Amino acid sequence: MNRPQDPEKHRCPWCLGFEQYIQYHDEEWGVPVYEDSIHFEFLILESAQAGLSWATILKKREGYRNAFADFDYKIVAEFPDGYVQELLQNPGIIRNVLKIKAAINNAKRFMEIQSEFGSFSNYIWDFVDGQPIQRKLTKLQEVVATIPESDRLAKDLKKRGFKFLGSTTIYAHMQATGLVNDHFVDCFRHEEVKLLQK
């Protein structure tokens, strides 16, 4: 069901679709995230997205929440091979064995980063010097798939053993979790999100 558009609210052009997408744009996308549990949730969802649309993943978000222990990385890191086979039969998620195994691997690597840096949040925010990058998009032609910061972060994550998290996927993560404010300047959320930085 499409959500009626408030005439006084301009939104980023990509989100004008189904209700869940608009709600995600209005309430979550671009909000600075400092909680490791939320970072892990988005890493799971974004690695699952590779080759698919974000709309597809949003529709399966609750399926992932149920299948991946409410995104508890400590539990996901210990998923046995038998559960992987069970997940491959679960229509609530993307049934791709490489992506499922990557999620388990990434949970282990995630905790290694926590041990080294105190939290995953400390680690990832260091790539933007602790402050969100404020981009000022005015037209779709200015949208990019990667930025130098996502290149560096993806390269470091790969070196640390993470899977299915290339620069494009990591840039999506940075946008989603507020390391980058990529709301269009005429979107009502641009200034709201900008005010949320520490």
TrEMBL record:
Swiss-Prot/TrEMBL GO biological process terms: base-excision repair
Keywords attached to this entry: Metal-binding, Zinc
Binding site for Zn(2+): 12, 25, 183, 187
MF terms (GO), sorted A to Z: DNA-3-methyladenine glycosylase activity; metal ion binding
InterPro entries in alphabetical order: Adenine_glyco, DNA-3mA_glycosylase, DNA_glycosylase
Name under which the protein is recorded: DNA-3-methyladenine glycosylase
Species this chain originates from: Rhodonellum psychrophilum GCM71 = DSM 17998
